[in-house]
Design goal:
Blueprint lengths: L2 H26 L10 H22 L4 H28 L4 H25 L5 H18 L1
Helix pairs in contact: 1-2, 1-3, 2-3, 2-5, 3-4
Length: about 140
């Protein structure tokens, strides 16, 4: 393994951990909606995204897997970094569930736009953004029920 690949996988691991923890705490802010907020579920969901997208890129594209996964997890990390100040805000201000969901959806929308931008920049097929979104949508029933 080259140093670059070791660095990339280390970054992917750390960014996945930060995203997992942030999503876990955000889910705790929405107990009315997310009843299944176990840390283990968040870990499987975030790590599973890497396996899902990595599998798709290996089967269909067969190139740029490390680079793409680094970009993909960067998008998740950026979304988490935006959610962290919101988590602090929720500790000091009474914010309705509807506003928390709306803010989360705004962050998710920005993440989708950024993911699509990065996929285009890497000259990869745009369906990678669709599969990224579909994976997260597939988790909604698990999180909500």
């Amino acid at each position: 393994m080259t140093i670059k690949i070791i660095y990339q996988w280390s970054y992917i691991g750390i960014a996945t951990l930060i995203s997992t923890i942030t999503l876990f705490y955000y889910a705790k802010e929405l107990p009315e909606l997310i009843t299944n907020d176990k840390l283990s579920i968040e870990i499987v969901m975030c790590a599973g995204q890497l396996i899902w997208q990595g599998g798709i890129i290996m089967l269909c594209i067969k190139r740029k897997i490390h680079t793409y996964l680094c970009h993909m997890i960067t998008v998740s990390l950026l979304g988490s970094l935006v959610l962290i100040p919101l988590l602090f805000l929720y500790q000091v201000a009474l914010i309705s569930v509807e506003i928390k969901v709306l803010l989360f959806l705004i962050v998710v929308s920005l993440m989708i736009i950024e993911h699509a931008r990065r996929v285009k920049k890497l000259k990869l097929p745009s369906y990678l953004t669709a599969t990224w979104v579909l994976y997260r949508l597939a988790w909604l029933p698990i999180l909500l029920f």
